[in-house]
Amino acid sequence: MATPRSHNPHFFKVLMQGFQQNLVIPPAFANEQKELMMSKHEKEIAFLRTRKINGDNLWKVEVSRRRDDDEWCFDGDNWSEFVEHHDMKYGEFLVFEHTGDLIFNVFIYDYTFCEKGLPRTRPRPHAHTRRSHKHGSRAVDDDLQSRSNRNKKPPMPTCLPCFTATMTASNLVFSIPYLNIPTVFANSNNLRESAGSIITLRVRDVKKVKGWPVKLQTFSGDRMCLREGWSEFVVSNQLKLGDVCLMELDQTARMEQERIILNVRISRNATSS
């Protein structure tokens, strides 16, 4: 499966209480997708594609409109089966890449902050085709083919390495706030050889892309963190306790420009003041 593309719309969700039954699509994302904005139905059909599992990696799930708040969410029996099949757990997170016509590439990350491995159990055959739907009763392969013919794109390399960080007091209010970098992420991307150098944290807002220089440092022997410049990033982006930052390593900049850039996506904690 392809890596997320910069020109395809994305969103990510941390799995919180109740994710086994449904997962809300961020309203800001849903409101930009014509398939949902122009829908006159209470339910639509989406296709979720994960990395291949014995050739059976495509899931047909319902997307339902909540009448009380006009939000859209993945739900229904097939969503619950998708969650169970991929052994998803509270606190893990998903990155959704919308390739068009409600077809999503889904990338799953676990507590190591790296992409989750394939399930150890064998997939249940045709779990995603058990039920027909009033908006489409054709076989999944035929239905997907008719959509994907309109959205063909060349293959891409493997998934971008990334990790998430939930903001705590040490990240925000210490005299010298800092951000720990997971050891597995630092080791797998050879960040130790760049210790002491300045890297860039890059955030894309509605109008433009902004960057902040931050120093990559080591501490306590072999651990790594972002320290000098991190406080400016926190203040500029108004980070609060419980906010989640998804950090993606820009591999193109690393290979072609010999620069380290982390593209940052921020998920706000709805309960923070």
Key terms for this structure?
273 residues; alpha+beta; At1g16640 B3 domain; 2 domains; 7-stranded mixed β-sheet; 8 helices; 18% helix; transcription; transcription regulation; nucleus; B3_DNA-bd
Account of the protein in words:
- There is one protein chain.
- By secondary structure, the chain is α+β, with helices and mostly antiparallel strands.
- Helix content is 18%, strand content 31%.
- It has eight helices and 14 strands.
- The strands form two sheets. It has a seven-stranded mixed β-sheet with strand order 1-6-7-3-4-5-2. Strands 8-13-14-10-11-12-9 form a seven-stranded mixed β-sheet.
- Strand 6 and strand 7 form a beta hairpin.
Strand content: 25-35%
Q: Biggest β-sheet, characterized?
A: 7 strands, mixed
> Percent range for helical residues?
10-25%
Alpha plus pi helix count: 8
Shape: elongated
Summarize the entry for a quick read:
By secondary structure, the chain is of the alpha+beta class. The protein has helices spanning 27-30, 34-37, 77-85, 140-148, 169-172, 183-188, 230-236, 251-256; strands at 10-14, 22-24, 43-49, 58-65, 72-75, 93-100, 103-109, 162-166, 179-181, 198-204, 209-219, 223-226, 244-249, 261-267. The chain has 2 domains: 10-109, At1g16640 B3 domain (Beta Barrel); 162-267, DNA-binding pseudobarrel domain (At1g16640 B3 domain).
Topology (SSEs and partners):
Elements (H helix, E strand, L loop, with lengths): L9 E5 L7 E3 L2 H4 L3 H4 L5 E7 L8 E8 L6 E4 L1 H9 L7 E8 L2 E7 L30 H9 L13 E5 L2 H4 L6 E3 L1 H6 L9 E7 L4 E11 L3 E4 L3 H7 L7 E6 L1 H6 L4 E7 L6
Parallel strand pairs: 3-7, 10-14
Antiparallel strand pairs: 1-6, 2-5, 3-4, 4-5, 6-7, 8-13, 9-12, 10-11, 11-12, 13-14
Keywords: DNA-binding, Nucleus, Repeat, Transcription, Transcription regulation
GO molecular function: DNA binding
Subcellular location: Nucleus
